[in-house]
Amino acid sequence: MCWFKKLFSSGCSCKKSKKRRKGSPGKEFAEAPLRVKWPKTLGGQKIDWGLKALKVPDVWKSSKGKGVKIAILDTGIIPHPDLKPNIKGGINFTSSNPQDYTDRQGHGTHVAGIIAAADNAIGVVGVAPEADLYAVKVLGDDGSGSFEWIIEGINWAVEHQMDIISMSLGSNFPHPKLQEAVRQAYKKNVTIIAAAGNDGDEYLDDDIDYPARYPETIAVGSIREKDLERSGFSSDGAELDIMAPGEEIYSTYLDDSYTILSGTSMATPFVSGVVALIIAKHREYKDSKTPVDTPTQIREHLIRTADDKGAIGRDNFYGYGIISPTKLMQDLSI
Predict the structure, then answer these.
(1) Is 100 a residue of the active site?
(2) Which residue range forms the structural domain that includes residue 57?
(3) Which of these is catalytic: 144, 235, 265, 324?
(4) Residue 23 has pLDDT above 60, yes or no
(5) Is 265 a residue of the active site?
(6) Residue 155 burial by CB count (10 A; 0-12/13-18/19+): exposed, middle or buried?
(7) Is the CB of residue 219 less than 8 Å from the CB of residue 197?
(8) Which of 62, 63, 82, 107 is catalytic?
(9) CATH number at residue 310
(10) Which residue from 1, 55, 155, 315 has the highest number of Cβ atoms inside 10 Å of its Cβ?
């Protein structure tokens, strides 16, 4: 099935229009378009293509993201066997029951698995399999929500001293209070990673979503497995920072199952996981010569070590290039 978002939504891919979506900034937002290729459970533990292509298992010799706190602002998370060891708490802003952060839509659980599915010999393994996950439910059971819920989720993450806010959601419209919440989180040294959006095509039409457009965020686009080229749906624009695997991604899903989804929603948690890896390593070696203590330093580190793609240097289709976990670790002097 195919759904179309109005304001904020979980940013998975489906059939796209070549024109930028229209909508009313005064309305609530609806569920994102999802592309579920097939629900499937494999025997043993699968390392998905993105981790293999970018050599994430090599990085695990140095870090698995232990103790890094990641707030996933999404549809919630279920206590999936592959996630339960790493789920440390959460909150629900979409109803009168703040403790009900269970995912009934699937998107947030898929995102969580990409970040930190446990390394436990079953199902799938995440980029940072020892990171701490916090389910901040800001999208309801039908995938819809409001600016207010997103803002409350960001503020909660700051108050509870999260290291990373991962937002696989987006809007066509700016909102001053949302921007202020993002700024305050940035000032409190919370690294904010957001999906660029799924409005891409072959044209350069500057269609990065909010909050990824805000300069305080790290805006993430998607690449595909075949040739590590940009996914056709991945939004472009001057605010785009980095690319990561986001097409045909296998991860945790509802009913303790697994499935394949595509979108910048899937690329965003990949980057969140990699950032958790470098933060954890930096904390282990407190005398590290490479500073990654602030969102600015982390962003600069990502950009400096990215593998250039597309036009030489920064461009609007690839940003600064494809994230390189191995270069990040090698460049993190201790």
Answers:
(1) no
(2) 9-17+31-331
(3) 265
(4) no
(5) yes
(6) middle
(7) no
(8) 107
(9) 3.40.50.200
(10) 315
